Amino acid sequence: MPRPDHSPSATSGAASRAAAARVLDAVLHHGRSLKAELAVALPRIADPRDRALVEAICFAVLRHPARFESALLAWVPRPLPKRDSELKALLFVGFAQLDPLGLPAHAAVAATVEAVRTLGRRHQAGLVNALLRRAQREGLPPGEPHAHWPKWLRDQIERDWPEDAEAILDASAAEPPMWLRVNRRQQSRNDYRARMQEAGIESQVDERLPDALRLDTPAAVAALPGFAEGAASVQDASAQLVVEALAAPPSARVLDACAAPGGKTAHLLERDASLQLVALDIDAQRLDRMRSGFTRLRLGERVQLLAADAADTQAWWDGTPFDAVLLDAPCSATGIIRRQPDVLQHRRASDLTALVATQSRLLDALWATLAPGGVLLYATCSILKAENEAQVDAFLARTPDAVAEALDDRFGRASGAGRQRLPGELGYDGFFYARLRKNA
């Protein structure tokens, strides 16, 4: 996510504050997805600097909502009624601009007060002005930084990772670096890094990742040289390691079973155009977006896309076994909360039970499509052992012809038969990998 521009043009408009308030109201008070709401709101904003500001504000609020809630509880005599949920979201927008974003206070306050009128709440402008001026004078109360985490989830993380729990919570509230995947079919990583330097964009190399560049100061994709022509893609380091863990042989028949949004599918083809790749997703609309991405990367003709439930093999599988299967399974997304902070607003303990059952069903069904001697890579962006270590252990116990193959420490710490990367380690997202071989 690019950092907001602090220039007057980026901090003077009420429309961007109102847009951020509407997105946050939908996420915080009406159970909507941040990604879905931003996908609607951002294209309506003409100036890319204002788009970046809206996105930055939304992420800042959702990473620290308990702190802003504490300020309201301390400063407002009576809690705001439900009908004022949009006003509450706008106040959070104002607080976030002052701290943690640190925008110029005068412009931030003035634009947010004007946004009250944009939202049709002119009569509440005085309240917003008074509260933001107080926040400017006194600073926000510190609050408990992780109070917005559901208790069941905090308890589970403390059970699974007792020595790392606090670091996990802290890393999940931090702004992550931006990782790029260089399309090696167009140029080498070093050549692309040089192009970026010429464009004034600094990046770092990680030797564990042959196609990756790390940007500690995120940039808008429009500023990346050759992005529109497929020179690079945005993809976290942990997701890029999936191709390394799968290690499909040349010309292999490969299944990407839960493929959307398509980054791993594209990476497989960028690494080896000889692969015979089939990509599934249950959502046809997401497959359409994948096609657009493959067109940008000039890969569209090299992959077969199917809209299907991967576990219902009778509906889509032609009976020809696959040499390699990638199962990036549906999961709790607890390893990527720093990128999807609204996970904490939506995730319920009952979701975990359903997800574990879905993962188990997918493993059993897809194993039948794998050729003897072939490899299935099970991966999630979760850090919960029920979805990872315990899931794989249970699969191995009920599947006599499955054996786990060791992965090295590029993939994180040993966790049962697989490897677990925790969020923030080396700047990576949280991720789990298990490589399973089918006995011939």
Keywords:
440 residues; four-stranded antiparallel beta sheet; alpha/beta
Summary, kept brief:
By secondary structure, this protein is of the alpha/beta class. 44% of the residues lie in helices and 15% in strands.
Explain what this protein looks like in three dimensions:
This protein is an alpha/beta fold and 440 residues long. It contains 17 helices and 13 strands. The chain has helices at 8-11, 14-30, 34-41, 48-63, 65-75, 85-98, 105-118, 125-138, 151-160, 165-172, 189-198, 237-246, 263-271, 284-297, 343-346, 349-367, 389-398, and strands at residues 178-182, 204-205, 212-215, 232-234, 253-256, 276-281, 303-307, 322-328, 370-380, 402-405, 413-415, 418-421, 431-438. The strands form two sheets. Strands 5, 6, 7, 8, 9, 10, 11, 12 and 13 form a nine-stranded mixed beta sheet that branches. A four-stranded antiparallel beta sheet has the order 2-3-1-4. A hairpin with a 2-residue loop joins strand 11 (413-415) and strand 12 (418-421). Helix 2 (14-30) packs antiparallel against helix 3 (34-41), helix 2 crosses helix 6 (85-98) and helix 2 crosses helix 7 (105-118). The protein is globular, with a radius of gyration of 23 Å. Residues 5-11 have low confidence and may be disordered.
